[in-house]
Design a protein that fits this description.
The protein is of the alpha/beta class and 366 residues long. It is 49% helix and 9% strand. Helix 3 crosses helix 4 (61-71) and helix 8 (150-162) runs parallel beside helix 9. Bound molecules: 4-hydroxy-3-methoxy-5-nitrobenzoic acid (1DF) and manganese (II) ion.
């Protein structure tokens, strides 16, 4: 561990010990909605196993990861992905987590062949709705769609909204190396806007176009490649003019906004008329889309300075809390949010009020 990192951790621990835990939290009555929480189904696992088994020669990070996950369903991560009652709810209860907003774990159905993907997406959404109904007030959920078939995906968004009462859509970045700014995917954006369903743009291993420098050191993973892939995807969508065409469409980015808004000043500066903006169809400044059409979550990022910055530039109403279960620890995600140097109003907004509004959550808590 180098000195910088040690200094940072000491500073973070100092914040933790000097901030008193809220009395409501101590009484166990604080509401906490975690917004990027992964699950899987038996059918999803079977389809992913068939895929990676059929291509033993592929060494891309996502294939390696899925060989590991599907190699032993009794291992810790797959067990936690498939479970609700035995491990997940007790873990939530131990740490005072009221709800998980569930999403099918990355890359969802997006590595599967089109027709398989459509089938797994629809059955996953049915199972998700059953889980939500089985444990009232404890789960909400984002619908999986197969972008491989944009028309069916648009229909599934409508079914997820009206019939299954799901709370948004998850898309795990690129699909067969294509991005959502491609006009063939506009039916998905159009349906999402029409149904008032936010699109949670979740990471996956970078596209082939971006992969080469990520192939060493496992950099295609959540360590670096996930964020670069996903932030680039969002910026592409923004620069395509999608938010002019669909002005009420909202995207959600995890991992503290995949750092997109850390570029907010430079995105505006470099896209000023005559430099870059004249070459793109966008009608507003990037900063306006970042504040109107983007929400972010804290999944997997426990850095109070990055949180403060995010609130200051995007507004407290655009920031939500998340754990990234089962890939990160519930205990530390709760400790981070309980002790971050915020006003109580900010803490409540980020812990649950924003999630309720953004994901249209109807009932909270048992
Ligand atoms: C990991 C992280 C894996 C995230 C994920 O899905 C995932 C990980 C397979 O740490 O291996 O979605 N994440 O969201 O950062
Ligand atoms: Mn995640």
């Amino acid at each position: 561990m180098n000195l910088d990192r040690r200094t940072f951790l000491t500073a973070a621990a100092g914040v933790a010990t000097t901030m008193a835990a809220s009395t409501r939290a101590a009484a166990g009555s604080r509401i906490r909605i975690a917004t990027e929480e992964a699950f899987s189904t038996r059918e999803h696992m079977r389809a992913m196993k068939a895929l990676v088994d059929a291509h033993p020669e592929v060494t891309r990070f996502d294939y390696k990861l899925w060989r590991m996950i599907t190699g032993n369903l009794q291992a810790d991560t797959p067990k936690r992905l498939l479970d609700f009652a035995e491990l997940r709810l007790p873990e939530m209860d131990r740490h005072g987590v009221t709800m998980h907003v569930l999403s099918l774990t990355s890359p969802g159905v997006q590595m599967l062949d089109r027709d398989v993907a459509v089938g797994v997406a629809e059955s996953t959404n049915d199972e998700l709705a059953e889980v939500i109904a089985r444990y009232p007030g404890r789960f909400a959920g984002l619908a999986t769609v197969a972008p491989q078939d944009p028309e069916r995906a648009a229909k599934e968004i409508e079914r997820a909204k009206t019939k299954l009462k799901l709370n948004g859509i998850v898309i795990n970045s690129h699909t067969n190396n294509e991005y959502l700014d491609n006009p063939k995917y506009w039916p998905i954006l159009e349906a999402a806007e029409a149904c008032d369903m936010p699109i949670y743009l979740h990471p996956r291993t970078p596209s082939d176009q971006m992969r080469a420098p990520m192939d060493d050191y496992n950099m295609g993973s959540a360590f670096w490649g996930y964020g670069i892939e996903t932030s680039t995807h969002f910026v592409r969508v923004m620069m395509s003019g999608a938010f002019d065409r669909f002005p009420n469409l909202t995207f959600v980015l995890g991992h503290m906004g995949e750092a997109v808004h850390f570029w907010i000043w430079r995105l505006d500066y470099m896209s000023r008329p005559g430099v870059q903006r004249g070459e793109t169809p966008i009608r507003r400044l990037p900063s306006e889309y970042l504040r109107r059409n983007l929400r972010i979550t804290t999944s997997g990022q426990e850095n109070p300075a990055a949180l403060r910055y995010s609130i200051d530039v995007l507004g407290v109403w655009n920031v939500m809390w998340a754990i990234d279960y089962p890939y990160q620890e519930t205990a530390s995600a709760v400790r981070f949010m309980d002790t971050a140097p915020l006003t109580e109003a900010e803490r409540e907004a980020i812990y649950w009020e924003n999630a309720r509004r953004v994901f249209n959550i109807q009932s909270i808590g048992a």
